[in-house]
Amino acid sequence: MVLLDAAGLTKRFGGFVAVDDVDITVDTGEVHSVIGPNGAGKTTLFNLLAGAYEVTAGEITFDGRDITDLPEHERPYLGISRGYQITNTYESLTVFENLQTAVALYHQNYYDMIRSLANRTEVTERVETLLERFELAPQRNVEASSLSHGDRRRLEIGMALASDPRLLLLDEPTAGMDAGETERTVSLIQELTDDMAVLLVEHDIEYVMTVSDVITVLERGAVIAEGPPGEIREDERVQEAYLGGKADA
After folding, report:
1. What is the Cα–Cα distance from 224 to 28, expressed in whole angstroms?
2. Residue partners of 188: CB distance under 8 A and separation at least 6
3. pLDDT tens digits, residue range 184-193?
4. Are 40 and 222 in contact (CB under 8 A)?
5. CA–CA separation, 195 vs 182, rounded Å?
6. What is the pLDDT of residue 122?
7. Among candidates 44, 42, 41, 110, which has minimal Cα distance to 73?
8. C-beta of residue 127 within 8 angstroms of C-beta of residue 156
9. Domain 2-87+165-246 carries which CATH code?
10. What is the DSSP letter of 172?
């Protein structure tokens, strides 16, 4: 089932066209990746879908509802959440407190959160679930600033899931990770699609080929290819634009 549908999406910055008439759909239960060389428009497209940028032309629908002009801060309440390219956690708070804050901010107003946060059973139960799901329970009392890079990235994804989203947008979730951390993140993201869809922007081509069901390739703001990983790997346009030319047989 189509969950997110963007049609004719365009973004101009003055005379520069960063995203040029892009069509993209994301189905429930799939990992859909967007790749392309530097300057291809990946992050701009991501920000359009997240609501961080205003759309110049085109439309975006989510579960049949037009969200083209919906502000970014309102999208989590429809079931859309995002992670960031740069780790975005509360560094002086513990892992538990970071997740607790993220869950509480979504589920209730800020005043109530501050007044009686520790006593809210539903918040605590959700935090415990996230700690287990992201294998962060042993670090529950560790400040975010003391975590390894991989653990901090997983904490951030956990915080993005605080709103129980149906669509999770991830911007380079494996950036800066070593091979072991990347492998753990691949497994985690694949497990997430039991409950939702994942749209991610990535630069690590091997990671993308492993984790994705569908890949969209951008060049100079336009889509040049889309399909399953096997097709994308063999596509000559992709090899020229992104992989550095046709691979040897």
Report:
1. 23
2. 134, 154, 157
3. 888 888 888 8
4. no
5. 21
6. 78
7. 110
8. no
9. 3.40.50.300
10. S
